[in-house]
Amino acid sequence: MDIKGFQFSAVEAAIKKPGRKDLALIFSEAPALACAVFTTNAVKAAPVLLSKEHIVKGTARALVVNSGNANACTGEQGMIAARETSHLVAEGLGIPAEAVQISSTGVIGVQMPIERVRAAIPALIEGLACGTLDDVAEAIMTTDTFPKMEARGGQAGGVSYSMAGIAKGAGMIMPNMATMLSFIISDAAVEPAVLDKAFRRAVDGSFNIITVDGDTSTNDTCLIMANGLAGNPVIQAGTPEAETFEALLHEVLLSLAKQIVKDGEGATKFVEVRVSGALSDADAKRAALAVANSSLVKTAFFGQDANWGRIFAAVGYSGAEVDPSRLALRFDDVLMAQNGVFAGGDAEVRGSEVLRKREFTVTVDLGLGKGSATVYTSDLSHEYVSINADYRT
Question: Cβ distance 294 to 325 under 8 Å?
């Protein structure tokens, strides 16, 4: 899909090791409105701290991102490396350094080899003439097994506009941002307040309802840039065009979020956890996250063991209001338990058959109210342990 006014580049800087492109650039030919959300972890990487400074003005022209090194827990030297990177890119593009967003992913606690980054930046800028968004999506991968991309098109005032997004992430995934990076670009002309509201709501309904392992990273970033070069009438608040824009943005982010869970490190299952009948939506989300993050539940999914008691146990310690005598549970359409006890019959056999599938739904009804929530998660396998045991070597 053609996104007007954006250019892309990716090069090999051998940041962690040679043999793959690991430094990428997205450049907007015109100043773009920009919004971003970052990790909630109190330990934040240097690029996160710098990007938070730069995003205050609500505009951006460029994003430079690397894989192989998180530039986290690197002290003042890490901040110096991040600032130098943004300055070098800005100088090469002829824009202010404050217009550059910077992001990193990879090993924590290792100093950024800034001399390699410095040497690669001229080729990175020169590559804007022929690069693609696909190149960027591949360059930001770490333990990912495939690049994650999604795109949509819309209309405002009879003029077509486009949006596209990329993401990386497979482990250290937990709501309220996770160890993921996601970058969204659009050529739509949109009011700043509309972009900000739509973006934050879309993040809440996508990246903040996924979990792979319950860990929140130091580098999580989700950024959107909209440069208005489609030429459409500016999308204003309270209009059908604003509703359409937000709906399309939500579709892009939710698709990327689901791709991250499906690519969870060592994952063999993609599970939709639904909780209904809660006293509030917040209570429902507490219960859903407890189920989705439970190591015992996730290992049961991997083992295809219909151990429904583990799910009720997780709901019970979630902090949500619970009446054990009202709990009900289904694996897809198989009723496993009702009124807090085993449903009997062939439920165990049929439930195990559901868990053999690559994708399935777990539905818990608390039987107390109208609150509901959905969270997406994966199983926990032997491979997850192997990947993370050997990550730095």
Answer: no
User: pTM for the full model?
Assistant: 0.90
| E strands in the chain | 6-11, 23-38, 59-69, 100-107, 148-156, 159-168, 181-186, 210-211, 221-226, 270-278, 328-331, 334-338, 341-342, 359-365, 371-378
Instruction: Provide the token pair at 219.
Output: 């580098």
Q: CA-CA-CA-CA torsion for 313, 315, 320, 321, nearest 10 degrees?
A: -70
On whether both 310 and 192 belong to a single domain, the answer is no
Q: How far apart are the first and last CA of the chain?
A: 38
At 75, which amino acid appears?
Answer: G
Contacts of 335 (CB under 8 A, 6+ apart): 328, 329, 343, 347
Query: What is the tens place of the pLDDT at every residue in 73-82?
Result: 999 999 999 9
Domain assignment of residue 258, given as a range: 6-262
pLDDT, one tens digit per residue, over 277-328 is 999 999 999 999 999 999 899 999 999 989 999 999 999 999 999 999 999 9
- CATH number of domain containing 14: 3.60.70.12
End residue of a domain, out of 220, 241, 262: 262
Cβ atoms of 10 and 135 within 8 Å: the answer is: yes
The yes-or-no answer on residue 179 being catalytic is: yes
Are 36 and 159 found together in one domain? yes
CATH code: domain of residue 282: 3.10.20.340
Q: How far apart are CA 256 and CA 168, in angstroms?
A: 9
Which of 59, 143, 179, 216 is an active site residue?
A: 179
Residue entry with tokens 């482990």: 171
